[in-house]
Amino acid sequence: MGTLAVLLAFAPYHTSGQAPQGDRYEVVLDWARLPEGRGWGSSSAVFVAHDGYIWIAERCGQNSCAGRTVPPVLKFSSDGRLLASFGAGTFVRPHGLHVDRDGHVWVTDGEGVDGKGHQVFKFSQDGKLLLTLGTAGVAGDGPTTFNQPSDVVVAPNGDIFVADGHGGDSNARIVKFAKDGTFLKTWGRKGSGPGELDDPHAVELDSQGRLFVADRQNNRIQIFDQNGAFLAEWRQFGRPSGISIDSNDVIYVSEADSGVTKMGREKGVWIGSARDGSVRQFIADPGGNPEGIAADGSGTIYGTEVAPRRVKKYVRR
């Protein structure tokens, strides 16, 4: 299938509502090539690793991998070549993905069916399973169980942070583990106050080591230190589904499901500074629904969509 590209306005954001014309982005569809006969499933999981390769976990051509045998964890070059795939038969609903500094691939499984799911997996680059957190198919809020874990991030010292919950009756907490998977602590509970969470949909670390949480149902980002102390909340990045912070502390935030019934704004991607919270620009993408978000060092952005099922590439012109 050929590449389809669309131009979108890329404008600085001002609280006054004025949005002067800024740069433009080319939105490239069908840039990543799947094997013949295979279509994209829903996806909220994308990450650009330190070596520049793009990792995506999609839901086996549908919105679930239950009963399916295709490998959902995919590695692509920036020009869309599929370089590796693995994880067949492991997942129910891949949701979050992170590649740590040592190149290990971490994926959360955000649903439980038939003795699978509610877990976090650590893989080698070639798909060897190295570590599993959580109890297969068991939803809970203890040190060895999750309930719909949405995302995972690993600190430079190896500490692991899991965003555990996806709204509704699931959990609403952050769970911290040591490098070897030993449970260390948890914080957060369902609510809307400082430090409380409702659908902690994504987690990311900035250069200072602060933990950013996309507190989606509360329409805010919350920031904690690595021991769970509440530092700040930011509401200027809309209703966040995904967060990506690059090496220069540029923050990219996907706003996938705003609409008039929620935030009353267009869907798209916010761009700003993780250092001071300033909002620099907004890519309005009314025809899209970006949920997972990742960016490389050059400012190219990758957005995964649950519906429609596709992976976009936003390239600055």
Series of H and E elements: EEEEEEEEEEEEEEEEEEEEEEEEE
CA gyration radius, whole angstroms: 18 Å
Strand percentage lies at: 35-45%
Strand element count: 25
> What would you call the quaternary organization?
single chain
Biggest beta sheet attributes: 9 strands, antiparallel
Mean of residue pLDDT? Answer: 91
Distance between the termini: 23 Å
Largest sheet strand order? 19-20-21-22-1-2-25-24-23
Helicity level: under 10%
Question: How many helices?
Answer: 0
Any low-confidence stretches, pLDDT <50, length ≥5?
Answer: 9-22, 259-263
Structural class label: mainly beta
Overall shape: globular
Topology:
Elements: E1 4-12, E2 24-29, E3 45-48, E4 54-57, E5 73-76, E6 82-86, E7 94-99, E8 105-113, E9 116-123, E10 129-133, E11 149-154, E12 160-164, E13 173-177, E14 183-187, E15 200-205, E16 211-215, E17 220-224, E18 230-234, E19 242-245, E20 250-255, E21 268-273, E22 279-284, E23 290-295, E24 301-305, E25 310-316
Antiparallel strand pairs: 1-2, 1-22, 2-25, 3-4, 4-5, 5-6, 7-8, 8-9, 9-10, 11-12, 12-13, 13-14, 15-16, 16-17, 17-18, 19-20, 20-21, 21-22, 23-24, 24-25
